């Protein structure tokens, strides 16, 4: 049984965080009057702020509580996830950020659809994006409900309702501006909490991490410092996991959306650099925190606290910093969850409103006012769905859905994005086929793998290993991503699209110079509220 | 393109190529570093488990180095793009 770890101090921190973020939302609501502010904060966020917000958008509770727990019970292997979550960021910077920022407006589908036929490509991209967001959001909501129950003693149902309501208020009234500042506040709290915890741990080891690792090895054996196979089993599965984490991170819609919140491509590049530094530093700290919990708290005590290892960091905080610090870390974990679900929701809303409503259903005829109304309705729908699904999946094993979200992003979004940017012969049919194959392929592969068959449905490995449909890989990316690329290339070569060929050079100019460069003369001014005219 | 001249076209094409070269080399470096590490993790666990000193194994040294190298590669690109590249774009446009 999970035991609640409620303390008055953590409740006080919790209310302080809610008060601050609601005040921010009130301030942001008064300034959120256009789609440009709702989806991109009017491009007024600075590079430094966006760097923090990106870190706040991306670092989920799993990055602190989950990884610390894995390190506490398994040692080094937890770091495989930390590293995978970071190495996608340079790929975003080198390959994605300039085309995205200079060609797109609110979503990555802007870039994929730029030269191609708007309606089919945007519809397909929306399917890929919404699949990523739904799986990730469900995983986050269920984890959040369980964690809040664990940390604050609030029942699961109310935990999910509180998180859903807070995220609804942030996004509905404050749009991107409020979401950005919630993420900045959360990232500052998370980095500060992580840094204090790291220093308090290292202070017991003469500020030398090697002494900490040596103490861990002395007590639990040298294998805690060596790679094992409990966390990631299977050789090709490890490579497949790596692919999904690296290229999935590089195509996560809620991350990509943040490059539109700064004023130009220079600031967008800088913000990715800052985010990479912050996230990297955080993962290094979590590694120390995990080993700290192993030595100071002990893996047995962490497991006994419930939550499958998630209590490692909070219990360590109590051991080295007392009850006040424990309360602070619990509140930080709560802020972390809220900031991530708000970012995911906003990105789902952008897809529904900007891609589907404005460019597929209304084909550029929707007014600003209409789009804002649709955006707000979409926010309410996504929030209700998130809460309902979160409650329905209580106690279910949905951890695989986070991995699935990365696989779909890697197999559906990444290939079409890269080919749309760099390959002249890419066609509408190729893009649609690639996105659908990447999405459906990832889902089917994971359903036929031990991830779902054994971990979720509870079948025994021996029963299914001989079945003709059995897929031995727990992570589908190594099959789904190449498959998506092959389909994209084969279908594109089998079809031809003269318009797409003709606009390729113009898009390259725009990637180089932005919408305000000389390419503008040829492309026509970017229409307010619609990018759809550009390629027609 | 209405304001293009051949010189401008050539200059811009060269710029696009320089960006592609830098971006592609840095991406391949990152991919090589990461999958080099994951390759060792998947296929050569004993190598990664080599103890270098008390409290320090090869993987505990290399893991953080993958993280630090990601940041350094980003730093190289942003420095190049925000200084060298953007200046070259500007001067190419001004010459036209």
Strand count, sense and barrel status of the largest sheet of chain A are: none
Order of helices and strands of chain B: HHEEH
What is the CA-CA span between the terminal residues of chain A? 60 Å
Helix content of chain A: over 70%
> Poorly predicted ranges of chain A (pLDDT <50, ≥5 residues)?
518-536
Radius of gyration of chain A: 23 Å
Question: How much strand of chain B?
Answer: 5-15%
Mean pLDDT across the residues of chain B is 91
Q: Please give the largest β-sheet of chain B.
A: 2 strands, antiparallel
H/I helix tally of chain B: 3
Number of strands of chain B: 2
Largest interchain contact = A-B, 60 and 52 residues
What structural class should be given to the helix and strand makeup of chain B?
A: mainly alpha
Helix segment tally of chain A: 23
Number of strands of chain A: 0
Tell me the Rg of chain B in angstroms. 21 Å
Low-confidence stretches of chain B: none
Short description:
By secondary structure, chain A is mainly alpha-helical. Chain A contains 23 helices and no strands.
Structure description:
The complex is a heterodimer of chains A (536) and B (96). By secondary structure, chain A is mainly alpha-helical. Chain A is 76% helix and 0% strand. In chain A, α4 packs parallel to α12 (265-297) and α7 packs antiparallel against α14. The radius of gyration of chain A is 23 Å and the shape is globular. The model of chain A is unreliable at 518-536 (pLDDT under 50). Chain B is mainly alpha-helical and 96 residues long. Chain B is 83% helix and 5% strand. A two-stranded antiparallel sheet of chain B has the order 1-2. In chain B, α1 (6-43) runs antiparallel to α3. In chain B, 26% of the residues are buried. The mean pLDDT of chain B is 91. Classes of the chains: A mainly alpha (536), B mainly alpha (96).
């Amino acid at each position: 049984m999970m035991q609640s770890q409620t303390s008055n101090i953590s409740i006080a921190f919790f209310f302080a965080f809610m008060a601050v973020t609601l005040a921010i939302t009130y301030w942001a609501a008064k300034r959120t009057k256009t789609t440009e502010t709702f989806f991109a904060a009017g491009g007024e966020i600075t590079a430094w702020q966006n760097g923090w917000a990106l870190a706040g958008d991306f670092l989920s509770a799993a990055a602190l509580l989950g990884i610390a727990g894995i390190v506490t019970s398994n040692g080094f292997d937890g770091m495989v996830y930390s590293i995978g979550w970071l190495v996608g960021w340079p790929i975003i910077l080198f390959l994605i950020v300039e085309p995205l920022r200079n060609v797109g407006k609110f979503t990555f589908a802007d870039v994929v659809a730029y030269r191609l036929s708007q309606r089919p490509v945007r519809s397909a991209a929306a399917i890929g994006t919404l699949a990523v967001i739904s799986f990730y959001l469900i995983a986050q909501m269920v984890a959040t409900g369980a964690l809040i129950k664990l940390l604050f003693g609030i029942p699961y149902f109310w935990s999910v309702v509180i998180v859903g309501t807070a995220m609804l208020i942030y996004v509905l009234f404050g749009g991107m501006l409020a979401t950005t500042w919630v993420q900045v506040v959360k990232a500052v709290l998370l980095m500060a909490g992580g840094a204090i915890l790291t220093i308090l741990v290292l202070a017991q080891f003469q500020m030398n991490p090697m002494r900490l690792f040596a103490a861990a090895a002395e007590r639990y054996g040298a294998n805690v410092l060596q790679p094992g196979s409990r966390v990631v089993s299977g050789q090709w599965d490890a490579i497949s996991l790596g692919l999904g984490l690296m290229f999935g991170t590089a195509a996560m819609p809620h991350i990509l959306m943040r490059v539109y919140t700064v004023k130009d491509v220079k600031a967008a590049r800088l913000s990715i650099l800052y985010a990479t530094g912050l996230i990297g530093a955080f993962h290094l700290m979590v590694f120390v925190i995990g080993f700290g919990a192993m030595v100071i708290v002990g893996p047995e005590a962490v497991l006994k606290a419930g939550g499958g290892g998630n209590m490692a960091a909070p219990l360590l905080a109590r051991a080295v910093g007392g009850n006040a610090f424990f309360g602070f870390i619990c509140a930080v974990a709560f802020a972390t969850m809220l900031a991530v679900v708000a970012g995911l929701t906003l990105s789902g809303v952008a897809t529904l409103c900007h891609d589907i409503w404005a460019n597929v259903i209304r084909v550029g005829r929707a007014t600003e006012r209409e789009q804002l109304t649709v955006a707000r309705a979409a926010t309410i729908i996504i929030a209700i769905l998130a809460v309902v699904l979160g409650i329905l999946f209580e106690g279910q094993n949905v951890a695989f859905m986070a991995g699935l979200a990365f696989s779909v992003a890697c197999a559906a979004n990444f290939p079409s994005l890269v080919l749309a940017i760099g390959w002249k012969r890419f066609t509408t049919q190729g893009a649609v086929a690639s996105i659908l194959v990447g999405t459906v392929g990832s889902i089917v592969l994971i359903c036929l793998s031990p991830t779902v068959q054994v971990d979720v449905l509870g079948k025994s490995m021996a029963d299914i290993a001989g079945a003709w449909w059995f897929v031995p890989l727990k992570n589908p990316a190594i099959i789904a991503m190449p498959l998506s690329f092959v389909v994209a290339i084969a279908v594109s070569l089998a079809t031809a699209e003269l318009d797409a060929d003709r606009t390729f050079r113009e898009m390259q100019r725009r990637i180089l110079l932005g919408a305000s460069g000389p390419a503008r003369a040829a492309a026509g001014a970017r229409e307010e509220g619609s990018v759809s005219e550009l390629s027609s | 393109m209405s304001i293009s001249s051949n010189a401008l076209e050539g200059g811009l094409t060269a710029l696009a190529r320089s960006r592609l070269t830098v971006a592609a080399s840095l991406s391949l470096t990152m991919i090589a570093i990461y999958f080099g590490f994951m390759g060792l993790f998947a296929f050569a666990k004993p190598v990664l488990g080599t103890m270098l000193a008390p409290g320090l194994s090869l993987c505990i040294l290399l893991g953080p180095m993958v993280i630090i190298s990601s940041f350094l590669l980003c730093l190289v690109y942003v420095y190049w793009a925000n200084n060298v590249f953007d200046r070259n774009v500007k001067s190419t446009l001004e010459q036209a």
